[in-house]
Amino acid sequence: MINLTNELEKHDSSNIVADKINPLPRSIVRRTAFELLDGEWRFTLDTENRGLNEYWFARHDYTETASFPGSIESHLADAKDVKENQELYSNSDEAVAWYERDFSVPEDWQNAADKLTQLTFGACGYETRVWLNGIALKTIEGEEVHYGEYNSFSYELPPQLLAPVNRLTVRVSHTIDAQIPRGKQASRVYRQGGIWYQTISGAVRSVWIEPVGRNRLRSRLGIISSLRDRMVEFDLTTRIHEPGVYRLQLSIKPQGENNTENEADVVKAEFELLLTAGEKQQRVPVEMPDARFWSPAAPNLYHLSAELIAPDGSVSGIETHFGLRKIAARGRRLYLNNEPIYIDGILYQPGVSTFEEMRRHMLAMKQLGCNLVRVHIAGIDPRIYALADEMGMMLWVEIPSPHASTQISRDNHWAELQRMLVFITSHPSIVIFSLYNEDWGAEDITTNIETRKYISSTYDYMQVHYPQLLVVDNDGWNHVSKRGKLCSHLLTVHVYTPDLASWSSVLDRLVAGETQGVAAQSLIVGDPYFYHGQSPLVISEWGGFGFSGYGGPGENEEKTERIRDFKREMRCRRVAGDIYTQATSIEEENNGIIDAASGELLVPPGLLDSNSID
Q1: What are the beta bridge partners of residue 436?
Q2: Are 539 and 579 contacting, i.e. CB atoms less than 8 angstroms apart?
Q3: How far is the C-alpha of 522 from the C-alpha of 525, rounded, in Å?
Q4: What is the CATH number for 190?
Q5: Which of 82, 212, 366, 548 is 20 to 30 A from 283, comparing alpha carbons?
Q6: Is the pLDDT of residue 93 over 80?
Q7: Pick from 188, 201, 182: which is nearest to 125 by CA?
Q8: CB atoms near residue 1 (< 10 Å)
């Protein structure tokens, strides 16, 4: 990784919304300046976990430097005494690292009475503690320790603590505990190798400061749209220090190449809000009688500008795009905007890919003919969600799963669910959401009624609070049946066989309603369930050709023909969609059809487009 200079990189984000590349890892932006804290930081490993007791946040002599953003694992490899450090790390269940750097806040930010300086980590963890000039900070949510490593979190920097030059200290702790959300990162249960990848921990996305209003809208937004009523409901989050009567103004206009900046606003709306101190969510409805819908074929988007006007006249705003769409599962079919749609999908695990690499991968998946990408139990840069909105690519996202089934792991799973939902529900591209995959984190699903109760209650919660998403309880097999009804909108199955005859036979049995002997485990767990087409059947993993664990051809030409044959068999049966495994090869899982480094296709364009299958 190339180190940036120690100087803060200064940017003006007033034109971010119009830019194709957003410089910050977020999809909801502010028209304010910001300063990146990326670059070279002082760094040391705390192999004996002594730093807190020895007050390293007050003073410490750092022996190394490291580049932010970057993982503890990469910093470990770059540090001096590499062999010694690697041995210490590999023999420990916990890695603790300390980072520190100096920074200054621009004078004009500090002189504005209605402003605060906000510090944001794009993603860091699993446990993060932060000190400013030796004083511990709490996140806006009041956390002394932030848990989680996939989503952003922020701190308001107390003005009384700021100096001309400030010292920012960060302690990051990560374990291989199987009870925390890990996705496909190795743990005590699943060691690195095969389909399990190296751990990636620490500050893996940018860190920045920016001036924000003391009374403001946070960069968090949920959207629910009703096609029938041409209605959009916006869930906004306010952060208030001075209670009072505020005005919320929304301005909406079409976004896209065919719309000019001078086009009249489609909708303007204003709401009066009595706001108390603290943080609060507020839902407001807006009618859009002439709205155009979002779909892969026509990804119509609208630009939203939302401003909160304080009693003293100060203004704080956020901007983003959104789209109107409806996804539904009825009988054996999936419907987008009340029109039947077949999922031509691909499994995507970003691994350690940079944003630019992920962007190339997304464009390549579009070239393959995909209309959906299944982001496989991974946290991902939110700019990828925004890119999917713009390019017309549906997304299926999933919680990075724990690797053990305990009450603690379920509590961690629930906390991770809440962290994810804050950042994904404004994107029309996100249509499907998985709670678990192949029993990972729910290994006792067949024997433990508490595990099944948690999954069924979480599914019910999602249906009530997030009706814009289709929810899958446990992708692949062991779907939970409660009184003969699935706790899932989709009946999904993972089928890996390189043999065409076996493939055809399994498809016939699945369509006929068989749930035993068609996957690695039973498709249903819990109460008896009888499948007669009540839910769409989706082959949510198949192929994997080239990986030794799945079999099949390794050469791309032969792989191409095998994929065509397998797709053809699905399209002549009552299957609602399929997800090919997988987009890129990662570590030992060598089954990609896109070059991970360049983004170039290794197979012909359009291969996964079932409309092109003769």
Answers
A1: 474
A2: yes
A3: 7
A4: 2.60.120.260
A5: 212
A6: no
A7: 201
A8: 13
Residue type, 493: V
Total domains, the chain: 3
Residues 347 and 466 occupy one common structural domain: yes
Per-residue pLDDT at 193? 72
**CA nearest to 226, candidates 78, 326, 362:** 326
Asked if residue 71 has pLDDT above 50, the reply is: yes
Question: Are 385 and 298 found together in one domain?
Answer: no
Taking Cα atoms as reference points, which of 455, 335, 444 lies closest to residue 399? 455
CA 162 vs CA 55, 159, 608: distances in Å: 20, 5, 55
Q: 545 versus 135: which is more confidently predicted?
A: 135
Instruction: Evaluate whether 560 touches 567 at the Cβ level (below 8 Å).
Output: no
More confident residue, 72 or 204: 204
156 shares its domain with 225 = no
Six token digits for residue 516: 């035993």
Integer CA distances (angstroms), 175 to 91, 179, 281, 367, in order: 12, 10, 33, 39
Greater confidence (88 vs 352) lies with 352
Considering the domain architecture, whether residues 466 and 554 belong to the same structural domain is answered as yes
Q: How far apart are CA 39 and CA 70, in angstroms?
A: 10
Beta-carbon contacts of residue 20 (< 8 Å; ≥ 6 apart) = none
What does the pLDDT read at residue 55?
97
Residues 317, 339, single domain; the answer is no
> Does a structural domain hold residue 2?
no
- Domain match, 274 and 363 both: no
Peptide bond preceding 467: is omega within 30 degrees of 0, i.e. cis?
no
Residues 277, 144 share a domain: no
| 420-471 per-position pLDDT tens digit | 999 999 999 999 999 999 999 999 999 999 999 999 999 999 999 999 999 9
Average pLDDT over residues 194-201: 73
Structural Rg of the chain based on CA atoms: 25
Average pLDDT over residues 579-607: 92
How many Å separate Cα 83 from the centre of its chain?
Answer: 34
Domain ranges, residue 569: 327-612
Mean pLDDT rounded to a whole number for the chain = 90
| Domain presence at residue 4 | no
SS3 call for 420: helix
Using the structure block, give the residue that is written with the tokens 């300390």. Answer: 98
Instruction: Compute the residue count for the chain.
Output: 614
Res. 37 pLDDT band, cuts 50 70 90: very high
Asked if residue 272 and residue 177 are part of one domain, the reply reads no
Quick check: is 303 in a domain?
A: yes
